[in-house]
Design brief:
The chain has about 120 residues and is of the alpha+beta class. About 20% of the residues are buried. It has a 3-stranded mixed β-sheet with strand order 1-2-3. Helix 3 links the parallel strand 2 and strand 3. The chain has a single domain, classed as GMP Synthetase, Chain A, domain 3, CATH 3.30.300.130. It starts with 15 loop residues before the first helix and ends with a helix.
């Protein structure tokens, strides 16, 4: 005896292709957000520590700042969330600021180092 009304619809896992496509879109959107004090986007700066996409298309992002006392600390998570939520099929996005491990210049991409003449 089964009661179909009592069991929620199963969530289907995202296919590898769909996850790859969403990952590319997420990176594209993260690259539109800039640290206002450094002319490089937050993705290339290495400020994004973790991006999780659930099968329900909820996104959870852990990010940091170049310095804990950054003047835009209160605003930047909102900028990131707004940019990511431009992807129409996403259901939600939460952005958490984390400070462990602390950010340092070694997290920057070669592209960011080149832009800042750090080679």
């Amino acid at each position: 005896m089964t009661d179909a009304a009592a069991s929620p619809e199963p969530v289907t896992a995202l296919s590898k292709d769909e996850l790859n496509r969403l990952t590319d879109q997420l990176i594209e959107k993260l690259k539109t957000v800039y640290d206002p004090e450094i002319p490089v986007d937050i993705y290339e700066l290495g400020l994004i520590y973790k991006v999780d996409v659930s099968d329900d298309k909820d996104v959870a992002i852990d990010m940091t700042l170049t310095a804990p006392g950054c003047p835009v600390a209160g605003e930047m998570p909102g900028w990131v969330r707004d940019a990511v939520m431009e992807i129409p099929e996403l259901k939600s996005c939460t952005v958490d600021l984390v400070f462990e491990p602390p950010w340092d210049a070694s997290r920057m991409s070669d592209e960011a180092k080149l832009q800042l003449n750090m080679f």
